[in-house]
Amino acid sequence: MPNLVESLLKYTTIVQDTGDIAAIAEFKPQDATTNPSLIFKAAQMPAYEKHLEDALEFGRQSGGSEVDQAAAFLDKLFVNFGVEILQHVPGRVSTEVDAHLSFDTEATIAKARRLIGLYNDKSIGPERVLIKMASTWEGIRAAEQLEKEGIHCNLTLLFSFAQAVACAEAGVTLISPFVGRIYDWYKQDQGVDDIPIAEDPGVASVNKIFNYFKHYDYPTQVMGASFRKVDQIVHLAGCDLLTISPSLLDEMQATEGEIEPQLNVEDAKRQSIERVSLDEKAFRWMHNEDAMAVEKLAEGIRKFAADTVKLKKFAQQKVSQGV
């Protein structure tokens, strides 16, 4: 009998959520995702010292103030890890834009172009990179422009149906609905230790988005993310992609079982689903009506920004020390 990973791969592309290249090399997923906290952790591992030194030299050569050099160092560090990861996956790597730019469309576009330029310097084409940014209205507008330029985007911190619809209408390549963080919010709101999988609001959210996209033939891919338990993953089998942490992948590999697809295009086509169209006012109102989404998006941006601040301090320390 196959293990759960082998069974899931029949229906869904698995993406690994880590900055640890050794873990990626061991599992060999199709794609990989990173974020500032993962990169910060990996950057302090002796195994990746060469990426640190190369990024530091790049920062020094970029000139400007220590702040400017630190920013250049960080951009290069993210890309260095991305390039290394791409040696171990056949598909794409997601590289994140600074969360502090989440409400600045033009700055997000500029940062994305810079990251893609650095990848291009390493002979990595844009088809192998997803620029990851928060699913704010401003982030979605930035992604819309970038997609027109051939720069593909992964819209993250996605909690509401409004965010998903706006991303699809903008022609975004991929979205990452956060299953586990939705689940966390409802557990706290209901004052319970667990929510039965049949009632799991995070799983239900991805189910709704997937069916809507497939019903109306949106090409935007749905990648469920932020899982708390294997059961959530199993109940989203058939989703385009699922990004899974190494610990949950290990648990799934150690468990035998056949997984049945829970999501498929044919079922989505048969459903009666009302079409939604959103301008900025309608988007903001619809998103605002979802208290969970409003809270989790704001919290997620703050947390990603805090992780980025740690990285920036780390970068400035390295630049100032010259080591």
Commentary on this structure:
The chain has helices spanning 4-8, 21-27, 36-43, 49-62, 66-86, 105-121, 137-148, 161-169, 179-190, 201-215, 230-234, 246-253, 265-270, 280-288, 291-321; strands at 13-17, 31-33, 93-96, 129-134, 153-158, 174-177, 221-224, 241-244. With 323 residues, the protein is α/β, with parallel strands linked by helices. Strands 1-2-3-4-5-6-7-8 form an 8-stranded parallel β-barrel, surrounded by 7 helices.
Quick gist of this model?
With 323 residues, the protein is an alpha/beta fold. The protein is built from 15 helices and eight strands. The protein has helices at 4-8, 21-27, 36-43, 49-62, 66-86, 105-121, 137-148, 161-169, 179-190, 201-215, 230-234, 246-253, 265-270, 280-288, 291-321, and strands at 13-17, 31-33, 93-96, 129-134, 153-158, 174-177, 221-224, 241-244.
Counting helices, strands and paired strands, the structural category is: alpha/beta
Helix content: 55-70%
The biggest beta sheet is recorded as: 8 strands, parallel, barrel
- The count of strands amounts to 8
- Termini Cα gap: 51 Å
Contiguous uncertain segments of 5+ residues: none
Strand order of the largest sheet: 1-2-3-4-5-6-7-8
Please state the second-level CATH architecture. Alpha-Beta Barrel
Which characteristics define this entry?
single chain, about 325 residues, alpha/beta, TIM Barrel, 8 strands, about 55% helix
Q: Topology of this protein?
A:
Blueprint: H1 4-8, E1 13-17, H2 21-27, E2 31-33, H3 36-43, H4 49-62, H5 66-86, E3 93-96, H6 105-121, E4 129-134, H7 137-148, E5 153-158, H8 161-169, E6 174-177, H9 179-190, H10 201-215, E7 221-224, H11 230-234, E8 241-244, H12 246-253, H13 265-270, H14 280-288, H15 291-321
Helix pairs in contact: 3-15, 4-5, 5-6, 5-15, 6-7, 8-10, 8-14, 9-10
